[in-house]
């Protein structure tokens, strides 16, 4: 999904608005690979530190210590992380701003700290994963649009950057909702590792109420965007209402009914589908 959103930006949004960019197809592919490699490394290190919880939460999907050894997982983590960072260093040099490399370093460190320490803390872990999704979206703006922006094209470039921010916030909120849903789904394993997630600290009922409140606010904001910000694109407004807002209303309905682990797993899948559908709205902007 990270790769998909980046390529939708590059080959639909940028071409439609005739945005000036700094990366050719080859170097954009390197940017996509670098973010994907760091994300993969984050998944691996998370699995390494989640074995005790995963034995309870999803024993059939246990990967580390079952399908591969822990030492192999460590080598894979180091390899993917190093490849992502090296590509990030090269791309920072290529666009003429080596300070951009810090974005890759911070993302990698956040994912590692999340897996080892921060995921056990209420709210902090959820916000970190959501922020990483936001970083992956904004990475395209930073490396491809930012360096090509100048006095003469500032207005058109800023318009696209605003779209980046809107979609980034969209991804942030949906990821946050999904992470909390996964906390409810995995509550038994999280208790085993002494995690302090929302459902453990507040209880499932209060956590569901928080999710409903966030979703309602998100729906109101999305409806506002559909009717007032994107009013020049009727197709986009109809798309957002039919394929994002209505599924979110269904999500609220099913969330209120959810009781079992399977119910919450299905809600997590539903949010993933909504996120995917939201990404494809880029084609209609």
Which structural traits does this protein have?
single chain, 12 helices, flat, mainly alpha, 285 residues
What does it look like?
The chain is mainly α. The chain contains twelve helices and no strands.
Distance between the termini: 19 Å
Instruction: Bin the helical content.
Output: over 70%
Q: What fraction strand?
A: under 5%
Shape: flat
The strand count comes to 0
- So how many helices? 12
Radius of gyration: 20 Å
Summarize the structure.
The chain has 285 residues and is mostly helical.
Give a topology summary.
Layout: H1 2-17, H2 25-49, H3 51-57, H4 70-94, H5 101-116, H6 124-145, H7 154-185, H8 187-192, H9 198-202, H10 204-229, H11 234-257, H12 261-280
């Amino acid at each position: 999904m990270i790769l998909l959103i980046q390529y939708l930006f590059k080959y639909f949004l940028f071409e439609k608005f005739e945005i000036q960019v700094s990366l050719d197809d080859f170097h954009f592919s390197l940017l996509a690979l670098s973010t994907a490699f760091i994300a993969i490394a984050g998944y691996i290190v998370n699995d390494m530190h989640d074995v005790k919880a995963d034995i309870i939460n999803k024993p059939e999907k246990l990967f580390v210590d079952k399908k591969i050894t822990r030492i192999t997982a460590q080598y894979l983590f180091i390899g993917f992380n190093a490849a992502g960072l090296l590509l990030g260093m090269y791309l920072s040099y290529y666009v003429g701003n080596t300070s951009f490399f810090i974005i890759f370093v911070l993302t990698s460190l956040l994912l590692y700290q999340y897996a080892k320490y921060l995921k056990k803390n209420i709210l902090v872990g959820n916000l970190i994963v959501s922020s990483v999704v936001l970083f992956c979206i904004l990475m395209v703006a930073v490396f491809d649009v930012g360096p090509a922006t100048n006095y003469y094209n500032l207005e058109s470039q800023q318009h696209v950057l605003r779209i980046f921010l809107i979609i980034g916030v969209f991804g942030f909120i949906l990821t946050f909702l999904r992470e909390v849903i996964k906390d409810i789904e995995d509550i038994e394993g999280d208790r085993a590792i002494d995690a302090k997630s929302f459902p453990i600290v507040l209880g499932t009922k209060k956590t569901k109420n928080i999710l409903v409140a966030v979703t309602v606010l998100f729906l109101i904001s999305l409806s506002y965007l559909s009717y007032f910000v994107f009013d020049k694109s009727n197709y986009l407004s109809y798309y957002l209402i039919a394929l994002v807002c209505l599924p979110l209303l269904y999500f609220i309905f099913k969330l209120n009914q959810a009781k079992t682990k399977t119910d919450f797993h299905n809600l997590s899948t539903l949010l993933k589908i909504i996120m995917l559908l939201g990404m494809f709205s880029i084609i209609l902007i």
